[in-house]
Write a structure and sequence with these properties.
Chains A, B: One of its GO terms (molecular function) is sulfur dioxygenase activity. Two copies of one chain form a homodimer. Chain A has an eight-stranded mixed sheet with strand order 2-1-8-7-6-5-4-3. A six-stranded mixed sheet of chain A has the order 9-10-11-12-15-16. Chain A has one domain: Metallo-beta-lactamase, Chain A (4-Layer Sandwich). The N terminus and C terminus of chain A are likely disordered. The first copy, chain A, is globular. The first copy, chain A, has eight helices and 16 strands. By secondary structure, the first copy, chain A, is α+β, with helices and mostly antiparallel strands. In chain A, strand 11 and strand 12 form a beta hairpin. At the A-B interface, helix 2, strand 3, helix 3 and helix 6 of A face helix 2, strand 3, helix 3 and helix 6 of B.
Chain lengths: ~290, ~290
């Protein structure tokens, strides 16, 4: 199906007016069915490149060397429909160039949450690709073209991302699960051997612990986890690794809450610029994006 | 087979003494057979995660935010044998921790060439993992435990990397091709939408052009190419993309040579420190590695 965001989908224009879903028939139950599909355990030689470049899907991990943000481009090689997760405003030129060079039709520019450390590129991307719609969690209270809620599906070509609410870093944090490919995009809920801070933006260490264990580490152990950030040069992890080696989330919840309360992290450099901009797709009330070296 | 580097392999101790190959029966012809294996075109759902994490292979791309170097960890999940390509000395702690957390037996720490922009971590890794052997091209004239030549194979568990000589950035540049997985690790010969400079270290634009077109862009178009560096936040490309979009290497050779002659690049920041160190596995005559923030 080539429908847009599904389930209890609602669309809102940037002026805030809300339209009813056009796809009530693809809801949470449908999205969750993917999770119970039998896992094919047969392994094919060369299927990595066959799957990941050109023959079935397009997958590209991109990085911002300033905010240490990862952006992800996911595409269906057959239909050319694609989704971009967590673009950064200063790197929209790069991202749009890659989308065009790969001949992709970018349906959605999706945020995992309202970022505090960089300005989202979703608004700028909509200017360059007018058919692209911005997407964010309805409970984030940020503006976007499409709101998502728990269990919704974001479809592109033959594929679909299941939307899982994973609050704790912020109320509106979502993890996007690509069941067919055994991947999840965790935003700031789960980082590689770490997790997002919980000391501002409705942060809750208890909520984050329950989100990560209940919605992310409950996925199959071989699932690859792609975070919104890494500061150590690591690009991915797996459910198995984080269940065994995450120094915070392997602890009991009371120890985790104490660890998070004692982090004493500095005030985010871009917070005052990023938060108001990210509430409106990064396109209003922002200074001109600084040029990248 | 669990043999070490194959083909016209020779081992040399760091004092330079050379031993004959123990594996003359696995040579160039054997390595090249991989290239002519029929390609399986059937695509399996979830085979990306099944292949790339835990079930058959381990693959991890790592990044140095200072020198913009990519390090690659490749492992056979069954035998746990692994290879690390282009480690950076300042990040050896990170790389060794990941190797141990994943329960891998690191057989080889391999360099694609004698780097001018960072000090290799191969020597430091040998100190932490004494069974690991350093590997570099024989024609690089650098010291290492194992020398490779055109057509040799680097085996780890059930897998093998084919060694392809791709001079031009330096005489000793090699590209490592993982035929079973449709990947190639191109070092500085081919970068994403670019290529390595050719204005020092025996650089030759003509040689580089012939290396890239003859040894890398001649691979199947869906092969994923992983470079030693990227400065724009891109993590991989494909043969198809570089054949269509590389702004230098899509040009005729005479235009390419002119482009390379007019780059006027600055002197590499770490060259004076890196070159002498990298001629001896990065372990002699080097200052203490600066701490990473």
């Amino acid at each position: 199906m080539l429908s847009s965001v599904c389930g209890s989908l609602r669309r809102t224009l940037c002026n805030g007016s809300v339209l009813a879903s056009k796809h009530p028939f693809l809801g949470r139950s449908n999205a969750l069915k993917l999770e119970t599909k039998p896992v094919c355990t047969r392994v094919m030689y060369r299927s990595y490149s066959a799957n990941m470049h050109g023959q079935e899907v397009v997958f590209r991990q991109l990085f911002d060397n300033t905010s240490f943000t990862y952006t992800y481009l996911l595409g269906d090689a057959a239909s050319k429909e694609a989704v971009l997760i967590d673009p950064v405003i200063e790197l929209v030129d790069r991202d749009v160039r890659i989308v065009k060079e790969l001949g992709l039709n970018l349906k959605y520019a999706v945020n995992t949450h309202v970022h505090a450390d960089h300005v989202t590129g979703t608004g700028e991307i909509k200017k360059r690709i007018p058919t692209c719609k911005s997407v964010i969690a309805e409970c984030s209270q940020a503006k976007a073209d499409v709101f998502i809620n728990e269990g919704d599906g974001i479809e592109f070509g033959q594929f679909k991302l299941e939307c899982r609410s994973t609050p704790g870093h912020t109320d509106g944090c979502f993890t996007y699960v690509w069941h067919e490919k055994g991947m999840a995009f965790t935003g700031d809920a789960l980082l590689i051997r770490g997790c997002g801070r919980t000391d501002f933006q409705q942060g809750s260490s208890e909520a984050l612990y329950k989100s990560v264990h209940g919605k992310i580490l409950s996925l199959p152990e071989q699932f690859i986890l792609y975070p919104a950030h890494d500061y150590t040069g690591q690009t991915s992890t797996t459910v198995r690794e984080e269940k065994n080696h995450n120094p915070r989330l392997t602890k009991p919840i009371d120890v985790f809450i104490r660890i998070m309360s004692e982090l004493n992290l500095p005030y985010p450099k871009q917070l005052d610029r990023a938060l108001p901009a990210n509430m409106v797709c990064g396109i209003f009330d922002t200074e001109s994006p600084p040029s990248k070296s």
